[in-house]
Amino acid sequence: MGMNWLITGGCGFLGVNLIHRLLKEGGHKVVVLDNLCVGTRDDLEAVCSFCEVSDQGNAFATLDGAKPVGLIVGDILDAELALNVAKGADVIVHFAANTGVQPSVQNPRRDMEMNVIGTFNFLEAARHNNVKRFVFASSGAPAGEVEPPIHEELAPHPVSPYGASKLAGEGYCSAFAKSFGVETVALRFGNVYGPRSSHKSSVVAKFIRRALAGEALEVYGDGLQTRDFIYVDDLIEAVVKATTVADIGGETFQIATNAETNIRELLEHMSKAFAQGGRPMPEVVYTDPLVGDVMRNFSDTSKASKILDWRPEVALPEGLGITLGWFLDGKEK
Fold first, then answer.
1. Predicted confidence band at 233 (pLDDT cuts at 50, 70, 90)?
2. Which of 71, 206, 226, 320 stands 20 to 30 A from 176 (CA)?
3. What's the CA gap between 222 and 262, in Å, rounded?
């Protein structure tokens, strides 16, 4: 059955990939709230035709089968706007956030405002509008520097303001589920990569952009730090399941691949993908480690497998090849 989806940050990497998936399914209406500071109208237009919605409190009623996606330009810190745009929504997927460790270290107050107050505003919007399900995009960062694999029962010890703000968001999700009956689901994403990531600041997209520009790839530290890289289509499948599986309100799930890959290994995979694409691999330079980065990070995804019936399907070499192909296609155009 089609649903009314409110997607914050819907012009960003994850938002446009989710919208692409929903439109392939058909029958859904989607309202996007975005301040356009990262994702753009062009990014949204690349996956769908859309209309700009002026009646914020009646957004879903203005959409139809011919044009099921509407855009509202606005800020998640606007509490009144949040209450208005959530009217008529069946599910809120809250992607909008200040993302990344380093921006949070550089401006921790901004990180707190966006990730804590912004999340709170849309939890309140869900509560007051009786929205059935609220999906929160979290991260492995709340766990901090712990012996991996990360799982949902680990005591969190964040080492960056970003980890702390995402932990606060998870805490509010749990509280709204327990106190108000809002069916919240927090998804702790691994390092997501894939097509439509041209604006993304994470390592895969950044390396590909620099490589195609003929610039050296900068590795912080010795390159032995590990991450869990997940292809975007696999992650979007988890988001969809999180909106439909029954009796999971208040739960948190690790959404990654249960595979530990260090940055040097990632570079080896990328080198092979570049060779297959007929492109040279650029020089790699090693610089000082970054403040707030953890050395090892990968996830135990057994809870998501058991409860959501979800498993990642795309291995890193395959996903890198698809991602590079998307970047090359855009560059050649």
1. very high
2. 71
3. 10
**Neighbouring residues of 260: CB distance < 8 A, sequence distance ≥ 6:** 148, 149, 226, 227, 228, 296, 298
Beta-carbon-side half-sphere exposure of residue 161 (alpha carbons within 13 Å): 18
Instruction: Answer whether 151's CB lies under 8 Å from 299's CB.
Output: yes
Q: Which domains does the chain have, with CATH numbers?
A: 4-193+230-258+296-314 (3.40.50.720)
Query: CA 81, CA 289: separation in Å to the nearest integer?
Result: 40
Which candidate, 207, 208, 223, 244, places its Cα nearest to that of 288? 223
Determine which helix (DSSP H) or strand (DSSP E) holds 253, and give its type and residue range. Answer: strand 251-255
Pair 102, 73: CB distance under 8 Å: no
Residue 274 dihedral angles phi and psi, to the nearest 5°: -65, -40
Residue 137 contacts residue 104 (beta carbons within 8 Å): no
Tens of pLDDT, residue by residue over 297-327, are 899 999 999 999 999 999 999 999 999 999 9
Handedness of CA 28, 33, 38, 39 (dihedral sign): positive
pLDDT, tens digit, for every residue of 44-54?
Answer: 999 999 999 99
Measured between its terminal Cα atoms, the distance across the chain in Å is: 37
pLDDT by residue (tens digit) across 235-293?
Answer: 999 999 999 999 999 999 999 999 999 999 999 999 999 999 899 999 999 999 988 88
Predicted TM-score of the model (pTM)? 0.95
328 CB neighbour count, 10 Å cutoff: 16
Which residues have a catalytic role annotated?
162
- In whole angstroms, how far apart are CA 89 and each of 32, 135, 200? 11, 13, 28
How many separate helices (H) and strands (E) can be counted in the chain? 12, 14
Give the Cα separation of 224 and 302 in Å (integer): 25
